[in-house]
């Protein structure tokens, strides 16, 4: 094995599922004259054909950590299966040099009735190790898995964490030249995750890794290059930051388009609205920090909510309120001009008022705005309240889970309690 | 073709591990354990013994019906069980096939290996029966491994073909038990070839399993070497089956992961 050079080469690879089922005759004739029908190029053919990968060309050099990103169904796992040799390209050429190890679906090859020890032999043999190679690695695998005391227990009695530990331990000790992996770094308990992560960093130095993930922060962090695949086609390949950012922007625009398509313009029948009507909320829109109308934002971008109103009858001491909540009504944040002691002066028949959220710390999800106008902070008898009047969406690279970003710091302090 | 075989040799460890694993998994948590391998041939032999030597008398020259039937059943069950276990093996191991890359023929071959273990266990009873029936020991017995090799070639070829067909088209699953049943009664498993009318015998003996069973009986029970008219055609047909089965299997194996 050389220390550099191309180890994975996709040359105009396409992959089609559900082609015509093979008949005995066709298979034999093809086996003896291999070039007879390799002319499929994605057009024509039967309707049942489904092209998951189209004309994909790229190369991976030794030692790279390539991240593959894209929406669900874009073809990411098909690429892994092609590299692993589990499935073959329909057209095009694919060359893979060296032994491929896979961290996809840990423990997929386990036989439930066999013990941990027997399954180490079985799974390692499935991954392509000879018996001697397995024996050489056996102790290290056991040590890494931490399952020494459970080696002679059938794996059906293992917890899912133990299962994953054993699977991971076997896979990383294969010493494969190319390692394929998906979200596995998110299994097991915290201690095991750290152990996996450290091992992963160690492998990164010597192994070519192909990493498929939806965790864009992780991708940015560990990959040396990123491939973005969209509907089976190569959209972009290059530096992690650039490709991930381009992908996020694409997702944002796509969402924006989708939301535009489904959002009705008039008042929605199912949406609750009440009030005496002296002042009417006509329209609520969301904008980015530069005032451009937008409905999809990234975490920690500025958000401006603009409320357009119209005056119908005389009023007294008005004020506006905005609530950000989830689809099920959980309130994330609510504010109004009264509690912020902002004096609202209305001189014309119609106008607009804006509230600006700087660096909105929301995490990925769909959020709704409920907007109201009332007199003297009396929300039991408002002028107008429109529930869920506007929706916006947050996409994120942030690794946290939940609704909001909280600044935090971990430190190990030892036993002080 | 040569690459395929080299790869298979590299994965021979997996073949053993799968076969052993299958055996261990099968016998774990059973009371009889390995003895289960004897239950099927012995009980079938007893049934046919009752039917064909008590209810209906089937003429068996020279030896007792028990050892006659057991010879046939042991060999037939090796064949039939390999086919029925092997046919579903690819589908049963889909979790492996869609997640890892290894020569797929390892899976059906490991099933044949597992069944041949049962065959070896069953063969001990055959030894006992041969002694009890006072069948004279003969140098012709040395030909038995050769006949066994022909049977294994034929069986392996069919198992490869059938398991691949089954993965792509599940019809085989319903069809196979029926075919095996008919095949068994069209082969000299529990009755001698001599009961077949003379004019049909040539046609009857086209069946490779008929040739193989006759060859076993020739050597084991009559102490004569099997004649070339049994060995040459059966070896030829077994080779054809093996090559065809392997070629077809290798040609379609990359589709297995796609059709699941």
User: What class do helices, strands and sheet pairing of chain A give?
Assistant: alpha/beta
Mean pLDDT of chain B: 91
Number of strands of chain A: 18
Strand percentage of chain A: 25-35%
Q: Main beta sheet of chain B, described?
A: none
Number of domains of chain B: 1
Structural class of chain B: mainly alpha
Structural summary, described in words:
The complex is a heterodimer of chains A (417) and B (260). Chain A is 25% helix and 30% strand. In chain A, a hairpin with a 5-residue loop joins β14 (318-325) and β15. Chain A is an alpha/beta fold and 417 residues long. Chain A contains eight helices and 18 strands. Chain A has a domain at 274-395: Coagulation Factor XIII, Chain A, domain 1, CATH 2.70.50.60. By secondary structure, chain B is mainly α. Chain B has one domain. Chain B has helices at 2-10, 12-27, 36-55, 65-87, 89-92, 94-97, 106-132, 144-168, 171-185, 201-204, 208-220, 228-252, 256-259. The model of chain B has no long low-confidence stretch (mean pLDDT 91).
State the main characteristics.
heterodimer; A: alpha/beta; Coagulation Factor XIII, Chain A, domain 1; six-stranded mixed beta sheet; 8 helices; 18 strands; 25% helix; 30% strand; B: 260 residues; mainly alpha; 13 helices; 73% helix; globular
Question: How does the SSE layout of this entry go?
Answer:
The complex is a heterodimer of chains A (417) and B (260).
Chain A: E1 6-17, H1 24-32, E2 50-61, E3 65-69, H2 76-84, E4 91-96, E5 100-102, H3 116-126, H4 131-145, H5 160-172, E6 178-181, H6 190-206, E7 208-212, H7 216-222, E8 225-230, E9 233-238, H8 240-262, E10 273-274, E11 279-287, E12 296-298, E13 303-311, E14 318-325, E15 331-336, E16 350-357, E17 365-375, E18 384-395
Chain B: H1 2-10, H2 12-27, H3 36-55, H4 65-87, H5 89-92, H6 94-97, H7 106-132, H8 144-168, H9 171-185, H10 201-204, H11 208-220, H12 228-252, H13 256-259
Helix pairs in contact in B: 2-7, 3-4, 3-7, 4-7, 4-8, 4-9, 4-11, 8-11, 8-12, 11-12
């Amino acid at each position: 094995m050389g220390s550099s050079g191309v180890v994975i080469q996709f040359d105009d690879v396409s992959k089609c599922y559900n082609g015509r089922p093979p008949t005995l005759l066709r298979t034999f004739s093809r086996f003896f004259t291999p070039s007879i029908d390799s002319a499929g190029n994605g057009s024509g053919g039967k309707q049942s054909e489904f092209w998951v990968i189209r004309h994909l060309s790229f190369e991976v050099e030794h030692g790279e950590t390539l991240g593959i990103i894209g929406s669900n169904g874009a073809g990411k796992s098909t690429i892994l299966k092609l590299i692993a040799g589990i499935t073959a390209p329909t057209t095009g050429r694919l060359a893979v040099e060296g032994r491929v190890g896979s961290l996809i679906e840990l423990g997929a090859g386990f036989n439930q009735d066999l013990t941990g020890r027997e399954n180490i032999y079985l799974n390692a043999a499935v991954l392509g190790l000879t018996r001697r190679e397995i024996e050489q690695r056996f102790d290290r695998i056991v040590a890494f898995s931490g399952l020494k005391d459970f080696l002679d227990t059938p794996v059906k009695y293992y917890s899912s964490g133990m299962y994953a530990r054993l699977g991971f331990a076997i896979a990383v000790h294969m010493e494969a030249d190319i390692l394929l992996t998906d979200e596995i770094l998110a299994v097991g308990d915290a201690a095991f995750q750290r152990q996996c992560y450290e091992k992963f960093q160690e492998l990164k130095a010597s192994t070519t890794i192909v990493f498929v993930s939806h965790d864009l922060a992780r991708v940015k962090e560990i990959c040396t290059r990123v491939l973005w695949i969209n509907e089976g086609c190569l959209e972009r390949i290059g530096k992690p930051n650039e490709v991930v950012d381009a992908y996020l922007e694409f997702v944002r625009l796509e969402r924006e388009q989708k939301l535009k398509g489904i959002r009705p313009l008039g008042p929605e029948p199912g949406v609750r609205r009440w009030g005496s009507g002296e002042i009417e909320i006509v329209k609520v829109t969301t904008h980015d920090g530069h005032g451009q109308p937008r409905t999809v934002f990234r975490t920690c971008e500025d958000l401006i909510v603009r409320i357009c109103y119209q005056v119908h009858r005389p009023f007294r001491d008005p004020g506006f309120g905005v609530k950000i909540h989830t689809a099920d009504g959980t309130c994330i944040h609510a504010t109004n001009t009264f509690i912020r002691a902002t004096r609202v002066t209305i001189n014309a028949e119609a106008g607009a008022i804006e509230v600006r959220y700087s660096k909105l710390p929301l995490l990925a999800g769909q959020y709704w705005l409920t907007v109201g106008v009332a007199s003297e902070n009396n929300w039991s008898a408002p002028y107008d309240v429109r529930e869920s009047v506007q929706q916006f969406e947050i996409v994120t690279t942030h690794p946290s889970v939940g609704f909001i970003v909280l600044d935090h710091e971990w430190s190990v302090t030892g036993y002080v309690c | 073709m040569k690459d395929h075989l080299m790869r298979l040799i590299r994965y021979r460890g997996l073949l053993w591990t799968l076969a052993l694993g299958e055996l261990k998994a099968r016998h774990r948590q059973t009371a009889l354990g390995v003895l289960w391998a004897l239950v099927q041939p012995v009980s079938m032999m007893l049934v046919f013994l009752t039917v064909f030597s008590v209810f209906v008398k089937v003429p068996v020259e020279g030896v007792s019906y028990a050892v006659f039937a057991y010879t046939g059943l042991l060999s037939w069950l090796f064949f039939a069980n390999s086919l029925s276990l092997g046919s579903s093996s690819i589908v049963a191991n889909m979790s492996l096939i869609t997640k890892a890359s290894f020569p797929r023929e390892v899976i059906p071959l490991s099933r044949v290996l597992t069944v041949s273990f049962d065959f070896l266990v069953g063969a001990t009873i055959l030894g006992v029966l041969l002694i009890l029936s006072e069948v004279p020991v003969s140098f012709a017995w040395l030909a038995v491994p050769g006949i066994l090799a022909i049977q294994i070639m034929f069986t392996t070829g069919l198992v490869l073909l059938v398991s691949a067909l089954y993965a792509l088209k599940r019809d085989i699953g319903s069809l196979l038990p029926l075919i095996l049943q008919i095949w068994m009664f069209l082969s000299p498993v529990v009755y001698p070839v001599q009961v077949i009318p003379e004019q049909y015998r040539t046609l009857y003996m086209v069946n490779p399993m008929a040739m193989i069973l006759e060859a076993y009986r020739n050597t084991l029970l009559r102490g004569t070497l099997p004649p070339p008219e049994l060995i040459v055609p059966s070896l030829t047909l077994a080779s054809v089956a093996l090559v065809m089965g392997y070629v077809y299997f290798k040609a379609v194996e990359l589709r297995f992961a796609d059709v699941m």
